[in-house]
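Database export, one record per block. Field names are fixed; values are copied verbatim from the stored entry.
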Amino acid sequence: DDDDDIPQLSSHALAALQEFYLEQQQREGMKTSQGFNQYSIGSIEEDWQLSQFWYSDDTASCLAKEAVVAAGKGGRIACISAPSVYQKLKEQDGKDFSVCILEYDRRFSVYGEEFIFYDYNHPLNLPENLLPHSFDIVIADPPYLSEECLQKTAETIKYLTKGKILLCTGAIMEEQAAKHLGVKICKFIPKHSRNLANEFRCYVNYASGLD
């Protein structure tokens, strides 16, 4: 009887191992379940050590729609440290705009050529094909609430944008945001999938639909 039990135990062990590997894949942001949308918010889990906090679905949708309108037909959109907006834009499968994601977290390289490795500490260390003033709108969410982080990210924003800027950061950064980017706070209040301790706001430098 003991011998008969061995295959049964092995199959349980195998199933447990397969479950472990599946969970590991999910943690690494490479979910493979059938019908899964790789662009869904949460498909790549937040890494709090990288100060990552994803927007709620409604907020990401609102910001994505705003970006498409602001960019115009055939517009180019850059998302700096704002992957959930990028994901929502890709969910739309829009043919009237193009988008790229500048992100420090290399897990987002699963998105192929649209992924550009980005470290705000080196704001102008960008690929040669990212030409200056080549994006109709730049959406940015600096990872840290510090003036240094905002100032360096602002260098990248100003290099890439033709003019329009949509910044998402803490309410406490209002003065610095105006100083470094000339943006003003919007009435729209962004929400995150997990509540943050710091009040968060959006800032723009153009007439937007967020007021």
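Remark 1: Residues 30-36, 39-43 have pLDDT under 50 and may be disordered.
Remark 2: The two ends are 73 Å apart (CA to CA).
End of record.
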